[in-house]
Amino acid sequence: MQEYFVDLHIHIGRTKSGRAVKITGAKSLTFSNIIRHARDYKGLNMIGVIDSHSPEVLDEMEDLLKAGELKEHPEGGLNYGGMSVILGSELEINDGSTQGPIHVLCYLPSLQSMRTFSKWLENHMKNIHLSSQRVYIAGRVLQKKVKDLGGIFIPAHVFTPFKSLYGKGVMSSLSEVFDSDMIDGVELGLSSDTQMADQLAELHQYPFVTNSDAHSLAKIAREYQKIEMVEPSFRELKLALKQSEGRGIKANYGLDPQLGKYHRTVCGECLAYSPTFDDACTECGSVKKVKGVADRIQELRSSEGNQEARPPYIHQVPLEFIPGLGPKMLEKLMDHFGTEMAVLHSVPLDSLKQVISERTAVTIDKARKGQLAFHAGGGGKYGKITD
């Protein structure tokens, strides 16, 4: 068994021809740029490219296979010089059983199965070329199709106020929308962690995954997990999610929830902190609120949780959040130590001090030890380091 760093939620911004896929994604987020950056700069061992259903993205993968830059793994996934690429699709459900839109992640084992899935989706959505599109079918129908193709089904960023399972999708339970037996894991999102999510008893049966939901190259691996597998392949990933045959998630690395964009409840107009839902904002008088993840989880709470039965959740501060660590200093770190994974996990403090300022090096070290203080985010605005 070996340990691998895995980020399963990376968007495509543009195709090779320049066609938009994730409209809010950076133009530099092409498939070829993503795989190079994720492997060589970030130091990841497995990634999920979440807009693989887009026909032009599939065509680019085919071209790279023909050129010998990619190889199909016999156990699923594409191999790019030692890094595994898992083909995925983020879709939006909003049928008659939901209270609001829900985003889900669907992963397929091969290029051919994703081609089949893409062709099927064309009959149930308006624009097959774009990311996160609404599919006009029930959640259970989508689950069954994914399972028929040998895939993995995971509800995405399940607590965020918009377009998520518990944000607005259901009143209280995932069984309102999905078949609980056809869910392979739950993606926590940037504003929650294991301790928070484990307070929902119905989630105790699922592994928690922590992914970046990257809309730019810089955001790749802002959240990820360490998974123990024999090798990085689709089959091994499925076994790990089931905690089967010795495989499993060994640690989740994610933002301290206070750094997330939706951790606390704020005024919907001026984003001032709002400790209650019913009162008008003391700053601007608005009665609109964006309910924070922390408050939503308290509404749904049904358990004390049992974090000891789960992998550790390690609060990670991405390097881009570190005060004073700009692009030039980050580039210097990469030149000396290779990848962000190395800087975040293994480079000693004394070695960091030799390359960057002592103050910034100490901040990175404090982040690794969970010793930083934060101003909590909310209403779409990230939190920030105050210490």
Structural description of this entry:
The chain is of the alpha/beta class and 387 residues long. Helices cover 27% and strands 18% of the residues. The chain has twelve helices and 17 strands. The chain has helices spanning 31-42, 55-66, 111-122, 139-148, 165-169, 194-197, 234-241, 293-300, 327-337, 340-345, 349-353, 358-369; strands at 2-10, 46-49, 71-72, 78-80, 83-93, 102-108, 134-135, 152-155, 186-187, 208-209, 224-229, 248-254, 266-267, 289-290, 313-315, 374-375, 384-385. The strands form four sheets. Strands 1, 2, 3, 4, 5, 6, 7, 8, 11, 12 and 15 form an eleven-stranded mixed sheet that branches. The protein has a two-stranded parallel ribbon with strand order 9-10. Strand 4 (78-80) and strand 5 (83-93) form a beta hairpin. Helix 2 (55-66) packs antiparallel against helix 3. The longest helix has 12 residues, at 31-42. It is globular and about 55 Å long. The mean pLDDT is 92. InterPro entries: Pol/histidinol_Pase-like, RuvA_2-like. This is TIGR00375 family protein. It comes from Mesobacillus boroniphilus.
